[in-house]
Amino acid sequence: MRMPLAAEFLLLAALWGSSFLFMMLGAAEFGPWATAGMRVSVAAAVLLPLLLLAGHWRVLRQHAGAIFVSGLLSSALPFALFAWALLSISTGLSAILNATTPLFGAVVAWLWLRERLPAGRALGLAVGFAGVLLLSWPKADFGGGGTGWAVLACLGATLCYGLAASHHRRYLSEVPPLVIAGGSQVAAALALALPMAWFWPAQTPSLGAWGAVVAVGLLCSALAYLLFFRLIARAGASKALTVTFLIPVFALLYGALLLGEAVTLSMVVGGAVILLGVLLATGALR
Description:
Layout: H1 5-30, H2 32-53, H3 57-62, H4 64-85, H5 91-98, H6 101-112, H7 119-136, H8 148-171, H9 177-198, H10 207-235, H11 237-241, H12 247-258, H13 265-281
Helix pairs in contact: 1-2, 1-5, 1-10, 1-12, 2-4, 2-9, 2-10, 4-8, 4-9, 5-12, 5-13, 6-8, 7-13, 9-10
């Protein structure tokens, strides 16, 4: 029985919102490289057989180079950066910063793909990045024990997502989504194999940490990708992407209820300004 469209949107937002919680719990014992490596390895183990059963092996081989770059930009690098950042900042803050992805996507598309940037969208970018400054300024401590580098790591991850979006539009727009999803996770697993082995924790992680890295790979990558592509097929790409607006809400909720994280006024105000900028920059609000 098919779920209502609104229920699928909420489920996907809930899954992606929980990824910050699982990565924080995993990174605390596995470290950032092993956490990211385990996440993509679990997802690849699920998605690759589905890709092969669908008869897409030839397509995967034809676009192997572009898919490998996609895996680096959309998974390997940003997952490692977020996992490292979550060692020192809250899940809610990292999720709000993650919402800047469409802003970086618009800038990269303008610079790389020469996509037109009307005045309204340019205003949205200015508003969105002002929200980032408002949110990040109190955290801009780059000394010992400061969180400035963690904030920059999150922004570096969202820049990778923006680059991945333009790379996809330029080189992979005709490739089936399942090939991109499965192939990119395999590519990311290969790219992270050596760092994961090199930085594997000396002390055996607890069952809770193992559960966290398996959950983030199985639920927040493999299942979430399949659900996302199902939403694209049902509602279209533009509407499916609006799910990103709900991710910080769920991340803040999980962090407050399960980790006791504080939801500060600066997070609420900065997040609202960033969301306004994203709505303007993407043309969702005219």
